[in-house]
TrEMBL record, chain A:
PROSITE patterns: WYL. Residues 14-131 form the PafC HTH domain. The lineage of its organism: Bacteria, Bacillati, Actinomycetota, Actinomycetes, Kitasatosporales. This is WYL domain-containing protein. Residues 247-321 form the WCX domain.
Automatic annotation (TrEMBL), chain B:
The lineage of its organism: Bacteria, Bacillati, Actinomycetota, Actinomycetes, Kitasatosporales. Residues 147-211 form the WYL domain. Signal peptide: none annotated. It comes from Streptomyces pilosus. This is WYL domain-containing protein. Residues 245-315 form the WCX domain. Transmembrane segments: none annotated.
Length: 331, 317
């Protein structure tokens, strides 16, 4: 699933792209397909499909002034740029959605702690210029906002280690086991999906691992070079946790007050129960890590399967209660 | 073969942009092959209206002018459609290139690349590796909620909406009539702030709790939209981040790192346990129970009772 996601052909997106292409190509006779595709952030196939449509377009199919644009597979030639009046090929103003999409994203990225200061300054300058150029269209962008969460100091160290290709030493908290472990990692990339994570090759487990930055208790950049094995980058758009079909199944039944479980845990199914609750089936490589969930749910839900997990939660609760008896007795 | 919609839209755009005088519907129909093939007047009219809306959606300002014969004409004037001059240097261009990639929602991802393409056509500098300057940083804005797009459009167009909403502890969703003000993404989840007409008060909704479709309502907003809409503060107080009291707990020495990270004081007791003072806000009881037998609440009594109550529920199974 690596590589560019396949985008469905959307007539509105394609039209707006072709309008910009016309302006762009007019200034660049003989532009290379490869360069134009990169400048427009599209695949060469997408560009070629635009080039198939453009010769059917013009100000009138009867007047014979269709755009005479063609390609030899490497370069793009426009033989009659005069077919569009000089002012008919000027760059177009931004639509409200375009201004919103770009400005909201730019403001969000600018809030990333650890973003290099020179990059942040460049982004803020660019944002101000785009706001001015967008004019009224920029107004709607105030109705959306996004904040990324990340730990500034940790972020900066990871970012630097990646840039300088150096190994990191971290003390990392794992909530599943409620323990802090020390490990050396070779960082691969930073990913922000709600929280910010570093994807890295973990030298302790000799495997690819994802670490959430707000769970890094301590971090040091080491002198050793980072040498992660060549790994194929996963498409993380479906979320960082991607349980596999071989993982053991866990069944949780929650009441109305525990419905949030379905929002936080990726699951195979969530069936409505008559009392307004849910029966949730999910998979995890490490069911023991869900003991915390069972404890947290209290009267709002319980683990149904596996039985051993349900029992370990009950056992933990009994042990915890015993401590209260002890304290009360002592007091 | 039917003529592709993009070709039809492109031709309409070029006709409207290229003309200096308003073109009548009749003239446009004769200039654009797809319209000639449209068949009946009815189907042409429907197609034409939809196409105009689509072009307006991508930013084209199309004017409607009546000519001397009382016939309606259309044109897209250059001065209202031209991007004002904008000059961005290579660093600024690279920063925008990174920002344009962060949306994981089809409509906004399309709009962001569309914006960048328009700027590219206006001379935005290109570099060999547009994202190289930013190292390995890959921010992403997740949008998994189906309610996002209709609410985004309703916020943009200031249209009232109605949807079914299930409160955190409610068995059944209830219908809510809302004047939507703003959407905010915090910790990977989207929230809507707006005026709740039934309750006559400002409310914040979590999009993942909206069940079923978001439907538009006719009419306008009845309450002025405040200049500053605060979503995060409301959500933070739900999440118990606005602690106003403190609690004293015992914690096993090797356990509970996140509790230690939040603690205001930590005192070693020497018997394998530490005593901590931690901020006490909404939701602390549920969090403490997660640590099972590694945490004992000392005070306040109210928190201690809540935790014991929760533990009893789990112990019963």
């Amino acid at each position: 699933m690596a590589g560019k996601p396949v985008r469905p052909v959307n007539a509105i997106d394609q039209t707006r792209r072709m309008l910009s292409l016309v302006t762009y190509l007019r200034e660049r006779p003989g532009a290379r397909i490869e360069d134009v595709a990169r400048a427009f952030g599209i695949t060469e196939d997408e560009l070629v499909s635009d080039l198939d449509v453009l010769p059917m377009c013009g100000t009138s199919f009867r007047g014979g002034d269709l755009l005479d644009i063609d390609t030899d597979g490497e370069r793009i030639w426009w033989h009659n740029p005069a077919a569009l009046g000089a002012d008919a090929a000027e760059p177009l103003r931004l639509a409200a959605d375009e201004a919103t999409a770009l400005l909201v994203a730019a403001r969000a990225v600018a809030t990333l702690p650890g973003l290099r200061e020179s990059d942040r300054q460049a982004l803020l300058r660019a944002t101000a210029k785009v706001e001015t150029a967008a004019g009224e269209a920029a107004g709607a962008s105030s109705r959306l906002s996004v904040t990324f969460e990340s730990e500034g100091g940790v972020f900066a160290d990871v970012d630097r280690a990646i840039a300088e290709r150096r190994r990191l030493w971290i003390r990392y908290y794992s909530p599943a086991r409620d323990e802090v472990t020390e490990r050396e990692i070779d960082p691969i990339r930073l990913v922000s999906v709600g929280h910010t994570y570093v994807e890295a090759w973990c030298r302790r487990s000799e495997a690819r691992r994802t670490f959430r930055l707000d769970r890094v208790a301590e971090i040091r950049i080491l002198d050793e070079p980072s040498a992660p094995p060549e790994v194929e980058l996963r498409d993380l758009s479906e979320g960082l946790v991607q349980p596999s079909a071989e993982d053991p199944e866990v069944v949780v039944e929650v009441g109305p007050g525990g419905r949030w479980v379905a929002e936080y845990y990726p699951h195979d199914s969530a069936d409505e129960l008559p009392d307004g609750g849910l029966r949730i089936t999910l998979r995890t490589p490490d069911p023991a890590s869900l003991r915390r969930l069972a404890l947290r749910l209290g009267r709002d839900g319980r683990i149904v399967e596996p039985a051993a997990l349900a029992e370990s939660a009950r056992q933990a609760a009994r042990e915890a209660l015993a401590a209260y008896d002890g304290v009360e007795a002592a007091g | 073969m039917a003529i592709a919609k993009a070709e039809r839209l492109m031709n309409l755009a070029l006709c409207l942009l290229g003309t200096r005088r308003p073109l009548s519907k009749r003239e446009l129909r004769e200039s654009i092959e797809a319209y000639l093939e449209a068949g009946s007047d009815d189907s042409f009219n429907r197609m034409f209206e939809r196409d105009k809306d689509d072009l307006r959606e991508l930013g084209l300002v199309i004017e409607t002018v009546e000519n001397l014969d009382g016939e309606t004409g259309y044109l897209a004037r250059r001065d209202s459609n031209r991007l004002p001059p904008i000059t961005l240097d290579a660093e600024e261009a690279a920063a925008l290139g990174l920002a344009a990639k962060v949306w994981q929602q089809a409509r906004l991802a399309g709009a962001a690349s569309g914006a960048l393409q328009k700027l590219r056509a206006a001379g935005l500098p290109e570099d060999v590796d547009p994202y190289g300057a930013h190292g390995a940083l890959e921010p992403r804005i997740p949008v998994h909620e189906a309610a996002f797009e209709p609410l985004m459009l309703a916020c943009r167009d200031r249209r009232p909406v109605v949807f079914d909403y299930r409160k955190a502890n409610a068995a059944q969703p209830g219908q809510r009539h809302v004047e939507p003000w703003a959407l905010e993404c915090w910790r990977g989840h989207w929230y809507l702030a707006g005026w709740d007409r039934d309750r006559g008060a400002e409310r914040v909704f979590r999009l993942s709790r909206i069940t079923g479709k978001v439907r538009s309502r006719s009419g306008r907003f009845t309450v002025p939209v405040p200049d500053v809409v605060t979503v995060r503060e409301t959500v933070a107080s739900w999440a118990g981040e606005t602690a106003d009291r403190s609690a004293r707990i015992r914690l096993r020495s090797d356990a509970g790192y996140p509790l230690r990270a939040k603690a205001t004081t930590v005192r070693e007791l020497g018997d394998g346990w530490d005593e901590l003072e931690i901020p006490y806000g909404h939701g602390l009881d549920a969090w403490l129970v997660e640590f099972g037998p590694d945490v004992v609440v000392l005070e306040p009594a109210e928190l201690r009772a809540d935790v014991v109550d929760r533990l009893r529920a789990v112990a019963k199974g």
